[in-house]
Amino acid sequence: MFKLDQNPTFWNKVEWQLPGEPPEDFKAKFKVVPLDQLEGDEFTTGEGNAKLLKDIILDVDDIVNASGKPAKFSDDLIDQLLNVPYLRNALLRSYINGVSGAQRGN
User: Fold this and answer.
1) Do 56 and 31 contact (CB within 8 A), yes or no?
2) Per-residue pLDDT tens for 18-55?
3) Which of 69, 77, 79, 93 is surrounded by the fewest CB atoms within 10 Å?
4) Whether the predicted pLDDT of 1 surpasses 50
5) Which residues, in sequence order, are CB contacts of 75 under 8 Å at separation 6+?
6) Does residue 56 fall inside a structural domain?
7) Can you give the chain as a three-state secondary structure string?
């Protein structure tokens, strides 16, 4: 039986790779935003992407700081991640893949 969750969340792998470097990943926990609450520019502009991601990222895991210690989730950490173009793109791609079912191979 299907149970309708009014506030669904999910963890997904965030994969990225710099040219010439091995692939890397970490995990992010996202909240699902209903389609009728999305604004038109959230997927088409950098500013829109950042605004959306700040709203939907609830936690991250498998990220360490410069000292090698686990990075603590905070608004500052999210700002740092979103300021790196390939990480912002990877986070958005992970969210879209998660909500579209791409991880199931569809």
Assistant:
1) yes
2) 889 999 999 999 999 888 887 766 667 888 889 999 99
3) 69
4) yes
5) 54
6) yes
7) CCCCCCCCEEEEEEEECCCCCCCEEEEEEEECCCHHHCCHHHHCCHHHHHHHHHHHEEEEECCECCCCCECCCCHHHHHHHHCCHHHHHHHHHHHHHHHHCHHHCC
The residues, ordered by sequence, that sit 6+ positions from 86 with a Cβ below 8 Å of its Cβ are 16, 18
Q: Which amino acid is at 67?
A: S
C-alpha 93: how far from its chain's center? 7
Prediction pTM value: 0.87
Domain count for the chain, please give it: 1
Examine residue 3 and state whether it is found in any structural domain, yes or no: no
Give me the domain span that covers residue 89. 9-104
Q: In what order do the strands lie in the sheet with 57-61?
A: 9-16, 24-31, 57-61
Q: 67 in a domain, yes or no? A: yes
Where do we find the tokens 């700040």? 54
Evaluate whether residue 2 is within a structural domain: no
